[in-house]
C-alpha cells in the first residue's frame, strides 16, 4: 500500500511528510549536497534534485561529532548530514517562521534531538518551526589551509537560504523569519547577525546563553595543526580528506583533553577546554558580533538576548567538581578569565561561588548581555531576560531553558525532582508565549532594554519586569572587550 501524507514541492523536488498532532511534519529534507569526498571541507553546495516524491519521514543522520558525552541519540547513519525539518500548522498560510540552531560547544549537536521537537511551538504558537543540521568540529570550524573558514556557519546560511526559497510552500512567511538558538547555537545566531552573507535572511533573532568565545585565525590554525599532528598528517584539505571522519573526531576529542594544561600556549581556550569556535577570519565572519552590532550591522533585526542565572553549575556537576573547589581554583579562574574586583564586589562569596560566578560570567552571562548592549548602541531594538527558576538542586543551569522553550519538559526529569515538573510547565508556557509572540510581532511582552533603566524579564513561575539582576557583574565587565582569543 502506498504511503499517504502532505506533499510539498521544493526547489529540488516533491517531498511527502506526515500528519502528526494536527501538523504537517517533514523530516530529513536535504538543503545541500553531502559534504564528503571532493566536497569535504568545502562551502555547502546546493542539494541535487530528485525525481518523483521523496519521503520526508525521518531525521537525517547527525553530522560527525565529539563522543565525549556518548553517541548521538539519533542512530541514523550516512553522509547526508545537511538536512532540514519542518513542522507546519497550515500549508496554505503565511505564518511566522522560527528557525532553531542547536548548541553543543561547536562540537556536538543534531536537529533530531528529542529536546528540539517543534510540535508544541508550532501548534500552540501558530508558527512554522524549522530545525536543521550543520557541520561541527574540524569539519565545521577547523581552520585549515585551502578551505573556507567557518563552514558550519556557511551551512547555517545555506539552510536559511533554503528557508527563504521554500518556506512559503510549507505555510511560512519568508519575510517573517526568526532565528533562535542556545549556547553554541546562540553564538551562531550572534555570528549570523555579524555576517554579510546572512544579511536579509531573517528579521528577528533570539540568543539563549550566547558564549563570548571566538578565535583568531592564528589560534584556530595552531589548534588544527596539533589535531592533524595526532593523525600524522599536515593541516591541509588534501591530507585531512583522506582521514575518516571517525578518526578525525577521535583526534579532536583527544586534543580537547590534552590542551587543557597548555594555558601558556592557548590561554583561555586551553583552560576551558574549548577547541572550536567561530573564527573571526575577516571574510565569512569579518568582525566579532559585539563590534559589528555596536556599529549597526543588525540594527534592522529585532533581538532577544538572555541567559540563565546559574549557567555554569551544570558543567561543574558534570565534571564532578561541585563541592570540590578550592581557594586555589578560584584564584586561577580569577587570574585567567576575570577582570579585577570580584573579591571586593562579592565579599561574602565562597571559593566555589567565585569560581562559578567567574565562569558563568565569562562564558555566557556577560557576553549575552553585551550583545543586547551592542545592539542598542548600534541603533537597534533589544529585549533582555534571565531564567531564574528553580532555586533548588542545580538551579537555573545552562541548557535548562531549551526544553522549557520547546515545551519538551518531560525530558527535564534528569535535572528536576518530579514535584518540580508542574512548575516547569508553567515556566515553559511563559517562554513559549513570549518567543512565539516575538516571532509574530517583534514584541515578547516586556519593555525594550535601554542603558538608563535596564529593564529585563525575569522568568520564574511568573514573568516579572525588573532591573537587570546581575548588575554587580555587569559593572565589573563593563570595560572588558570580548575580543577573539
From TrEMBL:
Hydrolase as a keyword? Answer: yes
The active site annotation covers 183, 311, 398
Q: What is its EC number?
A: 3.1.1.-
Q: Where is the Carboxylesterase type B domain?
A: 6-464
Tell me one GO molecular function of this protein. cholinesterase activity
- On whether Hydrolase is a keyword of this UniProt record, the answer is yes
User: Which keywords annotate this record?
Assistant: Hydrolase
Q: Which domain of life is it from?
A: Bacteria
Q: Which family does it belong to?
A: Belongs to the type-B carboxylesterase/lipase family.
User: Could you tell me what this protein is called?
Assistant: Carboxylic ester hydrolase
This chain's source organism reads Kribbella jiaozuonensis
Amino acid at each position: 500500500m502506498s504511503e499517504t501524507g502532505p506533499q510539498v514541492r521544493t526547489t529540488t523536488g516533491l517531498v511527502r511528510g506526515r500528519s502528526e498532532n494536527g501538523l504537517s511534519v517533514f523530516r530529513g529534507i536535504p538543503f545541500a549536497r553531502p559534504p564528503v569526498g571532493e566536497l569535504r571541507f568545502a562551502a555547502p553546495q546546493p542539494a541535487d534534485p530528485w525525481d518523483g516524491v521523496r519521503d520526508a519521514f525521518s531525521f537525517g543522520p547527525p553530522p560527525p561529532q565529539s563522543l565525549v558525552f556518548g553517541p548521538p541519540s539519533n542512530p541514523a547513519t550516512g553522509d547526508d548530514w545537511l538536512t532540514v525539518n519542518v513542522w507546519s500548522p497550515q500549508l496554505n498560510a503565511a505564518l511566522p517562521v522560527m528557525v532553531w540552531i542547536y548548541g553543543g560547544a561547536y562540537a556536538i549537536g543534531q536537529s533530531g534531538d528529542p529536546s528540539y521537537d517543534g510540535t508544541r511551538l508550532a501548534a500552540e504558537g501558530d508558527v512554522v518551526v524549522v530545525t536543521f543540521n550543520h557541520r561541527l568540529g574540524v569539519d565545521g570550524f577547523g581552520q585549515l589551509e585551502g578551505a573556507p573558514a567557518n563552514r558550519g556557519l556557511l551551512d547555517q546560511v545555506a539552510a536559511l537560504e533554503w528557508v527563504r526559497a521554500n518556506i512559503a510552500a510549507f505555510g511560512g512567511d519568508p519575510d517573517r523569519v526568526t532565528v533562535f538558538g542556545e549556547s553554541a547555537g546562540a553564538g551562531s545566531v550572534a555570528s549570523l547577525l555579524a555576517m554579510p552573507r546572512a544579511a536579509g535572511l531573517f528579521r528577528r533573532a533570539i540568543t539563549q546563553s550566547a558564549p563570548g568565545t571566538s578565535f583568531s585565525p592564528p589560534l584556530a590554525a595552531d589548534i588544527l595543526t596539533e589535531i592533524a599532528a595526532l593523525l600524522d598528517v599536515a593541516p591541509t584539505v588534501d591530507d585531512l580528506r583522506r582521514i575518516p571522519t571517525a578518526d578525525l573526531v577521535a583526534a579532536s576529542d583527544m586534543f580537547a583533553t590534552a590542551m587543557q594544561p597548555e594555558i601558556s600556549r592557548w590561554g583561555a581556550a586551553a583552560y576551558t577546554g574549548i577547541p572550536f569556535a567561530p573564527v573571526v577570519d575577516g571574510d565569512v565572519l569579518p568582525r566579532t558580533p559585539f563590534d559589528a552590532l555596536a556599529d549597526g550591522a543588525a540594527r534592522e533585526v529585532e533581538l532577544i538576548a538572555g541567559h540563565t542565572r546559574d549557567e555554569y553549575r551544570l558543567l561543574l556537576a558534570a565534571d564532578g567538581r561541585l563541592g570540590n573547589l578550592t581557594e586555589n581554583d578560584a584564584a586561577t579562574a580569577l587570574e585567567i578569565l576575570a577582570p579585577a574586583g570580584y573579591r571586593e564586589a562579592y565579599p561574602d562569596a565562597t571559593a566555589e561561588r567565585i569560581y562559578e560566578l567567574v565562569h558563568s560570567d565569562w562564558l555566557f552571562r556577560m557576553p549575552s548581555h553585551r550583545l543586547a548592549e551592542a545592539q542598542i548602541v548600534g541603533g537597534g531594538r533589544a529585549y533582555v531576560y534571565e531564567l531564574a527558576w528553580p532555586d533548588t538542586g542545580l538551579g537555573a543551569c545552562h541548557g535548562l531553558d531549551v526544553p522549557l522553550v520547546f515545551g519538551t519538559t518531560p525530558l527535564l526529569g534528569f535535572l528536576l525532582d518530579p514535584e518540580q515538573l508542574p512548575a516547569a510547565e508553567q515556566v515553559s508556557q511563559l517562554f513559549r508565549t513570549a518567543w512565539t509572540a516575538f516571532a509574530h510581532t517583534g514584541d515578547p511582552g516586556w519593555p525594550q532594554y535601554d542603558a538608563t533603566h535596564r529593564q529585563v524579564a525575569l522568568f520564574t513561575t511568573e514573568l516579572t519586569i525588573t532591573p537587570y539582576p546581575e548588575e554587580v557583574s555587569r559593572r565589573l565587565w563593563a570595560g572588558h572587550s570580548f575580543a577573539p582569543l
